[in-house]
Write a structure and sequence with these properties.
Length: 203
């Protein structure tokens, strides 16, 4: 019961009072379990290597889902996949709760690309049928924790661009990936570069 209550409180905090799916994640247990992750993702979830994603401030539901995606082989990465194989569902929920409770650092956008990136992020591209990213990832890039749509704000541009290309090439799959595949296929390489740069400075 205590555990249930704790999960419920966490969900309420994440979505600002809206009813949400309760998670069973325990922040403190997640902190302990994150020790093996910190070498790449940083002690507070802010990685310094642009190929390793920041996890700080990412929503718990999305983190848990992606860990399951690595474990189940929908996503593959030589560094990350072995880290997910031994995780239980409870571990994934705890790690999600821990990272959701951390504060992300925000980077800089390249001014030469920011204008195009902002246009795509806020308005999409009507000519090629690209929807506005902010419709699902929110105007400030916090995502939609209740739905498990990822936060993007401050993420390394190198990592973000790789993900969009992975969706295009079906190198990144999993439940819910079809949507991002369709969107990514409609983006030009320059639009991918620009929107990834814009996201790096978004907050
Ligand atoms: C040796 C380095 C390394 C370690 C250790 C590591 N990761 Fe990762 N992780 C990565 C890389 C690289 C990626 C990006 C893979 C890709 O390009 O898809 C990643 C991706 C992720 C993602 C997906 C993020 C997103 O935005 O979709 C999550 C979640 C994650 N790691 C959690 C963890 C957790 C939890 C641990 C510890 C149990 C851990 N990682 C340990 C390197 C590492
Ligand atoms: C209709 C909702 C929706 C729209 C619009 C949308 N996304 Fe997404 N996005 C999602 C969902 C859901 C996921 C998680 C999919 C999965 O599990 O792989 C996602 C995942 C992502 C990821 C992976 C994040 C990570 O940490 O690995 C990136 C990057 C991304 N979206 C960028 C964009 C960009 C750029 C746009 C605009 C061009 C956009 N999205 C528009 C719903 C959306």
């Amino acid at each position: 019961m205590l555990k249930l209550l704790r999960g419920f409180t966490l969900s309420l905090t994440l979505v600002g009072g809206q009813p949400a799916i309760a998670t069973d994640g325990d922040i403190e247990a997640g902190r302990t379990k994150s020790a093996t992750c910190s070498a790449c993702h940083g002690a507070d979830g802010n990685s310094v290597n642009a190929e390793w994603p920041k996890l700080a401030g990412q929503n718990a539901k999305y983190v848990a889902r992606q860990l399951a995606n690595f474990k189940e082989g929908h996503r593959k990465n030589a560094l990350m996949s072995p880290m997910a194989t031994a995780l239980t569902e409870q571990d994934m929920a705890d790690l999600g709760a821990y990272y959701a409770n951390q504060t992300p650092t925000i980077g800089q956008a390249d001014p030469a690309l920011a204008e195009l990136g902002e246009r795509i992020y806020r308005g999409g591209n009507a000519d090629s049928g690209v929807p506005a990213c902010m419709a699902c990832h929110a105007p400030d890039g916090v995502g939609n924790p209740g739905a498990g749509y990822p936060a993007l704000r401050g993420q390394h541009a190198t990592y973000t661009a790789k993900q969009l290309n992975d969706y295009r090439e079906e190198a990144r799959l999993g439940p819910g990936s079809e949507l991002m595949k369709t969107i990514s296929l409609r983006l030009t390489p320059r639009e991918i570069e620009a929107v990834s740069n814009y996201i790096q400075g978004l907050h």
